[in-house]
Amino acid sequence: MALLTMLAVVTVAIIGQRSLFAVVILASIYSFLMASVLVVLDAVDVAMTEASVGAGISTVLLLAALHLVNTVEMRPTRPRLPPLVVSAAAGLAIIWGTLVLPAFGTAEAPIHRHVVPRYVERSLEETNVPNLVSSILADYRGYDTLGETTVIFTAGIGVLLLLRGIRRRGGGADRAS
Amino acid sequence: MSLDLILRVGTKLILPFILLFSLYVQFHGDYGPGGGFQAGVIAAGMVILVSITFGLAAARQVAPQAMVERMIPLGLLIYAGTGAAGLLFGRNYLDYSSFAPDPAHGHELGILLVELGVLITVSGTMVSLFYAFVERGR
Lengths: 177, 138
Fold this sequence. Notes:
The complex is a heterodimer.
Chain A: H1 2-16, H2 20-40, H3 44-68, H4 81-98, H5 116-127, H6 132-140, H7 142-171
Chain B: H1 5-27, H2 36-54, H3 56-62, H4 65-88, H5 103-136
Helix pairs in contact in B: 1-2, 2-3, 2-5, 4-5
Protein backbone atom coordinates (compact mmCIF):
# COMPACT_ATOMS: atom_id res chain seq x y z
CA MET A 1 0.00 0.00 0.00
CA ALA A 2 2.84 2.38 0.85
CA LEU A 3 4.41 1.63 -2.55
CA LEU A 4 1.16 2.31 -4.38
CA THR A 5 0.73 5.59 -2.50
CA MET A 6 4.25 6.63 -3.51
CA LEU A 7 3.46 5.67 -7.13
CA ALA A 8 0.40 7.93 -7.02
CA VAL A 9 2.46 10.80 -5.52
CA VAL A 10 5.12 10.47 -8.24
CA THR A 11 2.42 10.41 -10.94
CA VAL A 12 0.84 13.61 -9.65
CA ALA A 13 4.32 15.20 -9.46
CA ILE A 14 4.98 14.25 -13.09
CA ILE A 15 1.70 15.82 -14.20
CA GLY A 16 2.57 19.11 -12.48
CA GLN A 17 6.08 19.36 -13.94
CA ARG A 18 7.03 21.62 -16.85
CA SER A 19 10.74 20.79 -16.83
CA LEU A 20 11.26 17.67 -18.93
CA PHE A 21 14.50 16.88 -17.08
CA ALA A 22 12.56 16.57 -13.83
CA VAL A 23 9.93 14.47 -15.62
CA VAL A 24 12.58 11.99 -16.80
CA ILE A 25 14.04 11.65 -13.32
CA LEU A 26 10.58 11.24 -11.79
CA ALA A 27 9.75 8.60 -14.42
CA SER A 28 12.90 6.76 -13.38
CA ILE A 29 11.78 6.88 -9.74
CA TYR A 30 8.38 5.60 -10.88
CA SER A 31 10.06 2.64 -12.59
CA PHE A 32 12.02 1.75 -9.46
CA LEU A 33 8.83 1.89 -7.37
CA MET A 34 7.09 -0.27 -9.98
CA ALA A 35 9.97 -2.77 -9.78
CA SER A 36 9.52 -2.90 -6.01
CA VAL A 37 5.80 -3.54 -6.46
CA LEU A 38 6.62 -6.40 -8.85
CA VAL A 39 9.06 -7.89 -6.31
CA VAL A 40 6.29 -7.77 -3.71
CA LEU A 41 4.06 -9.61 -6.21
CA ASP A 42 6.79 -12.31 -6.59
CA ALA A 43 7.40 -11.46 -10.28
CA VAL A 44 11.15 -11.14 -9.86
CA ASP A 45 12.01 -11.60 -13.55
CA VAL A 46 9.69 -8.77 -14.58
CA ALA A 47 10.95 -6.61 -11.70
CA MET A 48 14.51 -7.06 -12.92
CA THR A 49 13.51 -6.02 -16.44
CA GLU A 50 11.59 -3.02 -15.13
CA ALA A 51 14.52 -1.86 -12.99
CA SER A 52 17.15 -2.30 -15.70
CA VAL A 53 15.16 -1.09 -18.72
CA GLY A 54 12.61 1.29 -17.23
CA ALA A 55 14.82 2.95 -14.66
CA GLY A 56 18.20 2.39 -16.28
CA ILE A 57 18.47 2.37 -20.06
CA SER A 58 15.34 4.35 -20.92
CA THR A 59 16.31 7.10 -18.46
CA VAL A 60 19.75 7.36 -20.07
CA LEU A 61 18.27 7.39 -23.59
CA LEU A 62 15.63 9.97 -22.65
CA LEU A 63 18.29 12.21 -21.08
CA ALA A 64 20.38 11.82 -24.25
CA ALA A 65 17.32 12.79 -26.30
CA LEU A 66 16.73 15.81 -24.04
CA HIS A 67 20.32 16.84 -24.76
CA LEU A 68 19.32 17.08 -28.44
CA VAL A 69 16.09 19.06 -27.93
CA ASN A 70 14.73 21.79 -25.70
CA THR A 71 14.27 20.74 -22.08
CA VAL A 72 11.21 22.77 -21.11
CA GLU A 73 7.71 21.80 -22.16
CA MET A 74 5.71 24.49 -23.95
CA ARG A 75 2.62 25.95 -22.36
CA PRO A 76 -0.47 24.33 -23.83
CA THR A 77 -1.99 26.47 -26.58
CA ARG A 78 -5.33 24.72 -26.77
CA PRO A 79 -8.06 24.42 -24.12
CA ARG A 80 -7.37 21.66 -21.61
CA LEU A 81 -10.90 20.43 -21.02
CA PRO A 82 -11.32 17.92 -23.93
CA PRO A 83 -8.09 15.98 -23.11
CA LEU A 84 -9.11 15.88 -19.45
CA VAL A 85 -12.53 14.46 -20.34
CA VAL A 86 -10.95 11.84 -22.64
CA SER A 87 -8.44 10.70 -20.00
CA ALA A 88 -11.07 10.60 -17.28
CA ALA A 89 -13.36 8.54 -19.52
CA ALA A 90 -10.53 6.13 -20.41
CA GLY A 91 -9.57 5.78 -16.74
CA LEU A 92 -13.16 5.07 -15.74
CA ALA A 93 -13.45 2.50 -18.56
CA ILE A 94 -10.34 0.70 -17.27
CA ILE A 95 -11.66 0.71 -13.68
CA TRP A 96 -15.00 -0.59 -14.95
CA GLY A 97 -13.11 -3.35 -16.79
CA THR A 98 -11.29 -4.45 -13.63
CA LEU A 99 -14.61 -5.04 -11.88
CA VAL A 100 -15.27 -8.20 -13.89
CA LEU A 101 -11.75 -9.63 -13.41
CA PRO A 102 -11.39 -12.72 -11.21
CA ALA A 103 -10.38 -12.01 -7.60
CA PHE A 104 -6.70 -11.12 -7.13
CA GLY A 105 -4.42 -14.12 -6.69
CA THR A 106 -7.09 -16.77 -7.06
CA ALA A 107 -5.99 -20.14 -8.48
CA GLU A 108 -9.34 -20.50 -10.25
CA ALA A 109 -8.62 -17.70 -12.74
CA PRO A 110 -8.80 -18.86 -16.38
CA ILE A 111 -5.18 -17.90 -16.98
CA HIS A 112 -4.08 -20.50 -14.39
CA ARG A 113 -6.24 -23.30 -15.74
CA HIS A 114 -5.39 -23.45 -19.45
CA VAL A 115 -1.82 -24.60 -20.24
CA VAL A 116 -0.11 -23.47 -17.05
CA PRO A 117 -0.69 -26.67 -15.01
CA ARG A 118 0.99 -28.68 -17.77
CA TYR A 119 4.04 -26.34 -17.72
CA VAL A 120 4.26 -26.42 -13.93
CA GLU A 121 4.10 -30.22 -13.77
CA ARG A 122 6.34 -31.19 -16.69
CA SER A 123 8.79 -28.30 -17.17
CA LEU A 124 11.56 -29.67 -14.95
CA GLU A 125 11.56 -33.19 -16.42
CA GLU A 126 11.21 -31.93 -20.01
CA THR A 127 13.78 -29.13 -20.00
CA ASN A 128 16.00 -29.61 -16.91
CA VAL A 129 15.53 -25.91 -16.16
CA PRO A 130 14.17 -25.17 -12.67
CA ASN A 131 13.24 -21.54 -13.48
CA LEU A 132 9.81 -21.87 -15.04
CA VAL A 133 9.97 -18.38 -16.53
CA SER A 134 13.10 -19.24 -18.52
CA SER A 135 11.75 -22.53 -19.82
CA ILE A 136 8.44 -20.99 -20.90
CA LEU A 137 10.07 -17.95 -22.54
CA ALA A 138 12.83 -19.73 -24.39
CA ASP A 139 11.29 -23.14 -25.03
CA TYR A 140 7.51 -23.55 -24.80
CA ARG A 141 6.98 -20.01 -26.09
CA GLY A 142 10.13 -19.89 -28.21
CA TYR A 143 8.35 -18.39 -31.20
CA ASP A 144 7.13 -15.43 -29.14
CA THR A 145 10.61 -14.68 -27.85
CA LEU A 146 12.01 -14.99 -31.36
CA GLY A 147 9.43 -12.40 -32.41
CA GLU A 148 10.39 -10.15 -29.50
CA THR A 149 14.07 -10.37 -30.41
CA THR A 150 13.14 -9.48 -33.99
CA VAL A 151 11.23 -6.46 -32.68
CA ILE A 152 14.31 -5.27 -30.74
CA PHE A 153 16.44 -5.83 -33.85
CA THR A 154 14.05 -3.93 -36.11
CA ALA A 155 13.53 -1.07 -33.67
CA GLY A 156 17.26 -0.73 -33.04
CA ILE A 157 18.13 -0.69 -36.74
CA GLY A 158 15.31 1.79 -37.44
CA VAL A 159 16.40 4.27 -34.77
CA LEU A 160 20.03 3.93 -35.83
CA LEU A 161 19.10 4.71 -39.44
CA LEU A 162 17.01 7.71 -38.36
CA LEU A 163 19.72 9.21 -36.16
CA ARG A 164 22.65 8.49 -38.46
CA GLY A 165 21.01 9.16 -41.81
CA ILE A 166 20.09 12.78 -41.08
CA ARG A 167 23.52 13.60 -39.70
CA ARG A 168 25.29 12.14 -42.73
CA ARG A 169 23.19 14.11 -45.19
CA GLY A 170 24.04 17.28 -43.26
CA GLY A 171 27.74 16.45 -43.31
CA GLY A 172 27.68 15.74 -47.04
CA ALA A 173 29.74 12.53 -46.84
CA ASP A 174 27.79 9.38 -47.70
CA ARG A 175 29.66 6.37 -46.40
CA ALA A 176 26.78 3.93 -46.62
CA SER A 177 26.42 3.59 -50.37
CA MET B 1 37.94 15.16 -18.84
CA SER B 2 38.62 16.13 -15.25
CA LEU B 3 35.84 14.66 -13.21
CA ASP B 4 35.60 13.95 -9.54
CA LEU B 5 38.33 11.55 -8.42
CA ILE B 6 36.00 9.56 -6.17
CA LEU B 7 33.56 9.10 -9.05
CA ARG B 8 36.25 7.82 -11.41
CA VAL B 9 37.86 5.43 -8.91
CA GLY B 10 34.46 4.27 -7.70
CA THR B 11 33.32 3.59 -11.25
CA LYS B 12 36.48 1.62 -11.98
CA LEU B 13 35.92 -0.48 -8.88
CA ILE B 14 32.31 -1.28 -9.70
CA LEU B 15 32.70 -2.01 -13.44
CA PRO B 16 33.95 -5.63 -13.25
CA PHE B 17 31.18 -6.47 -10.80
CA ILE B 18 28.51 -5.10 -13.12
CA LEU B 19 29.81 -7.28 -15.95
CA LEU B 20 30.10 -10.27 -13.63
CA PHE B 21 26.53 -9.71 -12.41
CA SER B 22 25.37 -9.54 -16.01
CA LEU B 23 27.01 -12.89 -16.76
CA TYR B 24 25.54 -14.31 -13.56
CA VAL B 25 22.06 -13.18 -14.56
CA GLN B 26 22.65 -14.73 -17.99
CA PHE B 27 24.01 -18.13 -17.01
CA HIS B 28 22.13 -18.49 -13.75
CA GLY B 29 18.88 -17.56 -15.48
CA ASP B 30 18.02 -21.26 -15.67
CA TYR B 31 17.97 -21.46 -11.88
CA GLY B 32 17.13 -17.98 -10.62
CA PRO B 33 15.46 -14.86 -11.93
CA GLY B 34 16.90 -13.36 -15.07
CA GLY B 35 17.79 -14.27 -18.60
CA GLY B 36 19.22 -12.92 -21.80
CA PHE B 37 17.19 -9.72 -21.90
CA GLN B 38 18.05 -8.52 -18.39
CA ALA B 39 21.69 -9.58 -18.75
CA GLY B 40 22.00 -7.73 -22.05
CA VAL B 41 20.63 -4.53 -20.57
CA ILE B 42 22.95 -4.76 -17.54
CA ALA B 43 25.99 -5.32 -19.80
CA ALA B 44 24.95 -2.34 -21.94
CA GLY B 45 24.59 -0.33 -18.73
CA MET B 46 28.23 -1.05 -17.95
CA VAL B 47 29.37 0.38 -21.30
CA ILE B 48 27.14 3.43 -20.80
CA LEU B 49 28.63 3.98 -17.34
CA VAL B 50 32.13 3.88 -18.85
CA SER B 51 31.02 6.39 -21.46
CA ILE B 52 29.48 8.78 -18.91
CA THR B 53 32.46 8.71 -16.56
CA PHE B 54 35.45 8.42 -18.89
CA GLY B 55 34.09 9.78 -22.17
CA LEU B 56 32.91 8.29 -25.42
CA ALA B 57 36.42 7.42 -26.66
CA ALA B 58 37.09 5.18 -23.66
CA ALA B 59 33.74 3.43 -24.13
CA ARG B 60 34.55 2.84 -27.80
CA GLN B 61 37.74 1.10 -26.72
CA VAL B 62 35.78 -1.19 -24.40
CA ALA B 63 33.04 -1.87 -26.97
CA PRO B 64 34.03 -0.81 -30.50
CA GLN B 65 31.14 0.64 -32.48
CA ALA B 66 31.56 -1.76 -35.41
CA MET B 67 31.36 -4.68 -32.96
CA VAL B 68 28.20 -3.57 -31.14
CA GLU B 69 26.47 -2.83 -34.44
CA ARG B 70 27.28 -6.29 -35.76
CA MET B 71 26.01 -7.80 -32.51
CA ILE B 72 22.45 -6.63 -33.31
CA PRO B 73 21.91 -9.04 -36.25
CA LEU B 74 24.34 -11.65 -34.86
CA GLY B 75 22.17 -12.38 -31.81
CA LEU B 76 19.05 -12.73 -33.92
CA LEU B 77 20.94 -15.10 -36.27
CA ILE B 78 22.04 -17.22 -33.29
CA TYR B 79 18.41 -17.44 -32.14
CA ALA B 80 17.01 -18.23 -35.59
CA GLY B 81 19.95 -20.58 -36.27
CA THR B 82 19.20 -22.54 -33.10
CA GLY B 83 15.68 -22.97 -34.42
CA ALA B 84 16.95 -24.04 -37.83
CA ALA B 85 19.36 -26.52 -36.18
CA GLY B 86 16.26 -28.25 -34.81
CA LEU B 87 15.08 -28.66 -38.42
CA LEU B 88 18.45 -30.16 -39.43
CA PHE B 89 18.08 -32.77 -36.67
CA GLY B 90 14.73 -33.74 -38.17
CA ARG B 91 12.57 -32.00 -35.59
CA ASN B 92 10.31 -28.96 -35.71
CA TYR B 93 11.64 -25.41 -35.83
CA LEU B 94 12.78 -24.38 -32.32
CA ASP B 95 12.45 -27.95 -31.02
CA TYR B 96 15.67 -28.60 -29.10
CA SER B 97 15.06 -32.27 -28.24
CA SER B 98 17.80 -33.69 -30.49
CA PHE B 99 20.67 -31.45 -29.39
CA ALA B 100 21.74 -34.01 -26.76
CA PRO B 101 21.12 -37.75 -26.31
CA ASP B 102 18.75 -36.96 -23.46
CA PRO B 103 15.89 -34.73 -24.72
CA ALA B 104 15.78 -32.78 -21.45
CA HIS B 105 19.46 -31.92 -21.76
CA GLY B 106 18.86 -30.95 -25.37
CA HIS B 107 16.20 -28.49 -24.23
CA GLU B 108 18.55 -27.12 -21.58
CA LEU B 109 21.23 -26.51 -24.23
CA GLY B 110 18.71 -24.97 -26.63
CA ILE B 111 17.47 -22.55 -23.97
CA LEU B 112 21.06 -21.56 -23.22
CA LEU B 113 21.81 -20.84 -26.91
CA VAL B 114 18.59 -18.92 -27.43
CA GLU B 115 19.22 -16.78 -24.33
CA LEU B 116 22.73 -16.09 -25.62
CA GLY B 117 21.24 -14.79 -28.87
CA VAL B 118 18.86 -12.52 -26.92
CA LEU B 119 21.76 -11.24 -24.79
CA ILE B 120 23.86 -10.35 -27.85
CA THR B 121 21.04 -8.60 -29.71
CA VAL B 122 19.79 -6.64 -26.68
CA SER B 123 23.18 -5.42 -25.48
CA GLY B 124 24.26 -4.56 -29.03
CA THR B 125 21.06 -2.59 -29.67
CA MET B 126 21.20 -0.65 -26.39
CA VAL B 127 24.86 0.36 -26.76
CA SER B 128 24.43 1.26 -30.45
CA LEU B 129 21.44 3.46 -29.64
CA PHE B 130 23.41 5.19 -26.90
CA TYR B 131 26.34 5.82 -29.24
CA ALA B 132 23.99 7.18 -31.92
CA PHE B 133 22.35 9.60 -29.47
CA VAL B 134 25.66 10.83 -28.10
CA GLU B 135 27.04 11.34 -31.62
CA ARG B 136 24.04 13.43 -32.61
CA GLY B 137 24.52 15.63 -29.55
CA ARG B 138 27.98 16.79 -30.59
